[in-house]
Fold this protein.
Amino acid sequence: MQRKIRIKDISEMAGVSPGTVDRILHNRGNVSETARTAVGEVLKKVNYKPNIHISGLSLKRKYKVVITTPSVTEGEYWESIHFGIQHALEEYENIRIKCLVHTYNEFDVYSCREVYDRILQIDADGVIIGLTFKEETLRLTRNLEEKGIPYIFVDSTMENASPLAFFTSDHYRCGYLMARLITSIIPQDSDIGISYAIRIGDESANTSTLRQNGFNAYLSEKKKTHKVQLIPYSTMEPEKNDVWVKELFHHQHNIGGVVFFNSRGGLLADCFARNGINNIPIIGVDLTVPNIKALKNGYIDFLIGQEPEHQGSLAMKTLIEYLVYRRPVKVQNYVQLDILTKEIIDYYNQFNYLS
Amino acid sequence: MQRKIRIKDISEMAGVSPGTVDRILHNRGNVSETARTAVGEVLKKVNYKPNIHISGLSLKRKYKVVITTPSVTEGEYWESIHFGIQHALEEYENIRIKCLVHTYNEFDVYSCREVYDRILQIDADGVIIGLTFKEETLRLTRNLEEKGIPYIFVDSTMENASPLAFFTSDHYRCGYLMARLITSIIPQDSDIGISYAIRIGDESANTSTLRQNGFNAYLSEKKKTHKVQLIPYSTMEPEKNDVWVKELFHHQHNIGGVVFFNSRGGLLADCFARNGINNIPIIGVDLTVPNIKALKNGYIDFLIGQEPEHQGSLAMKTLIEYLVYRRPVKVQNYVQLDILTKEIIDYYNQFNYLS
DNA sequence: CTGTTAGCGCTTTCAT
DNA sequence: ATGAAAGCGCTAACAG
């Protein structure tokens, strides 16, 4: 294992000064073709890996990064994404990054538009986007592209956009997995209840739909004959939920298990608990505080996690490495899908070890 | 958000020079009581967080770290642990660490003793231990303790030792989880086959036993009435395995599912495949290459992963931070237990994003 | 266009 | 016992 190669080593090999090598590495211009080729030759031979921490030490450049996601509620999904972003910033503490967080109301497209307009006023170096409204976001990304500002998606991605990268879980596969799990633990002839969130307006949540598609795909691929019953759920008028649930379950019913494709299933589990509905397996997504509580209490059987901290952290790290070194970026990045149960949820805390 | 506090800031507040602050921070001695208390006062007030990357830049001290584990086979469990350790070393590239890897034959206590004797000759700054033989390891750790050399366990820990820390999964809980999973997918009145590895000598694998205990605990807690049938498995005489398996399954049998508590289950799955035994759910541990293959092919239904890369990486990071800053260390560290299925195994590749 | 120099935060060395 | 100064690898500012 040889000594690490430094800029000084390269400059000596190429017969130029360290300053010139630096200029070449960072495309700062003011370099003769001769010098460029000489250094290029050396770079081909040696495996130079710049040390970003030390770069940061002398890098005067300040970067402005905008983060835009739905509003952050404590203990919920988006908070984890933001934690991950913070974690990356701590790891790259030597790079001077100003983080501007702009959140919008995910149930209100006007709020989103307003926030996006504000973002477009900012002369940002990069943007991390957690999207909800496709049309609005498309307008944003088009504008960013015109300005040459790179952007990265977290949580989900979108057609017709050209992000620098995206970090999401495979929502379709998530639904597919949920179908496999629920069908493996309920009787073959029972029905499956699907909880769906009532939304105002025509924007249906992208990720839930993808999961639903994956779910359906599994059922038809495996020729499963379970009937599906929809269970409405309202965030706006929570008092209705109990009524709906009662209606469905206090009659004769054949529901063997329930799945939910959005992250609010813990609340449905509460609703079941209140109405004395036990022994119905529930499978859901996201490790929000209410969901985890329901998992621990035994109301939810499986939760699928999509590593939000990891998504946020990877997005920010990727953006930083791109901004500082123009490091080539892999566009499609699918994070792991975690299956959590009551038995192992206690060990599910990432990033709590050292920092 | 205020500017980060530096040593220079502290020295100015305490009315001493940066050199003195450094001496205090690192317990290098040659400091008057007056200076120590003055700086101590300031440190209490401000939240100084040293920057280990920059420290490394000027740190002349070289550290020698010994890694000792069972021999590493490609695609197997211990390789992942070593990958994780490498990953941590890359992240802390500025710290000069010489890594001495000493592996032993995990089926041969004499090999282990020999390796440990060699290790004791080394004047190491720290040791990372993946243990197999308890008695031998106890002798090693006693000696290390006498010499004041800190050591960290990965994969499993041991009573009567005083490691700086250990990073393992909760094996008991792992077995408990496996019991929950298998019983939720097999008929109530069917038997469960348990594959066990035949070992030479009286050393039974610690981790497998713990898993077995957890498994049994679940069955009795939940009053499960499944009968358990043992299926021997030999690494030494693989030709016997087919015979045993045939014997068990070609008679009338009532085995609804099989679990294995060691990492070699993929081979048993192969054995099943060769003998035309399908449709028997198998649950196992560890994401070795053969296991993953069997999972993808549908021969294994669930694999439990214990984040070996993470274990290795955390162990090394912890050791480094302790060596450089005497950072206080949390002793007991349980990593996550991952439940993997065919559907999501493709997304299970850690550390593949940026490095 | 290019080499030299100073300086980032930290540790180490060298005077004092 | 302590402050001042040099230097780690890198980038930025300056002088040519």
Summary: DSSP finds 13 helices and twelve strands in chain A.
